[in-house]
Amino acid sequence: MNFKQALALLLERGHGNKKNNLAEVKKTANLLGLKNLAYKTVHVSGSNGKGTVCFLLAKNLKLNGYKTGLFTSPHLVDICERVQINGKKISKKDFALYLSKVLKKETVKLKFFELLTLLALLYFKDKKVDFAVIECGIGARKDSTNIIKPCLSIITSVSLEHTQILGNTLKQIAYEKAGVIKPKIPCITGVLPPSAQEEIKSISAKNKAPLFTVKKEETKLKENQNIVLKAAEILELKKKTLNLNLPCRFEVLKKGKKYIIKDGAHNPDAIKELAKIYKNSPYFKQENTLIFACSKDKDYKTMSKILNLLFKNIIVTEVTQNAVPTQELKKYFKKAQICANPKDINFKNLPGNILICGSFYLTSIF
Length: 366
Known about the structure:
Layout: H1 3-13, H2 22-31, E1 40-45, H3 50-63, E2 68-71, E3 83-85, E4 88-89, H4 92-105, H5 112-126, E5 131-135, E6 152-155, H6 163-166, H7 170-177, E7 187-189, H8 194-206, E8 211-213, H9 220-234, E9 251-255, E10 258-262, H10 268-279, E11 289-292, H11 300-308, E12 313-316, H12 326-330, E13 337-338, E14 354-357, H13 360-365
Helix pairs in contact: 1-4, 3-9, 4-5, 7-8, 10-11
């Protein structure tokens, strides 16, 4: 199997939202020798901030001399970005090779993310990493990453998202996110809504898992940095850094005289945080341009209420098959122009600086 064939197979397996029972994923994992991992893992769940915490923590582990694996999603340009060791992504050759190894042992037809999870864990095993930082996909309790036994669990945030899968209340979603909590294993959380905090506190108590919650800060970025610092303390890391420019997380680029800001914020809580950072930045002007797209399972109606207040010029577009149609977005972004294909947008003709948000897939295009 070559890389092109591997991608085609993954896309074919990715159709539909139904996941396999976690027990089935475990069966294949056991056949791959992944029942008891030789390396330590940190398991990270949350509605927002997972990627930031994962990247920062992985960098700190590397800084302390540990060979560190990192499994994150989604990717921006190349699927190989999801599987990294010490900041270097898996090669296309190894990606295809390790997918083949997983396929040979699968006991049922595994889905896109399930295959990727096992691919990453096996790759980290063979490459003899010391640590691996593992980001959950959706939720945590039923997520394929929940076959690991971490030495530390992290829940960055809880907000209403993926409600058709995780539940309609913050308490229900907190219950799913708390799947990362394991008996007697410490857990760190960001500042959570009261009902979510109580649910996680209850689950931690049942598991006799020490629970640490960082203090409230002016920005979620600062809270996420505090999570990383607490994690470093628990893991007894001597060297610490919080310096990391993450792609598509308030990433600022200069193009001629314009500034382009790319941020993957795609739910109301993340958009609120983005709006706060953006308004207090030197790039904010009312005449700037917003480029927005999102998938159908996101709360675009609430996001539009926040973003409409910040921009005179708005372009709505579509970036995936699951995108909200531009005509539907236009109902809520009433000042918006429609551009069906984001690749047709000419930055030279747009007023002011440009903010691109709503989807990591959208931000990765520019």
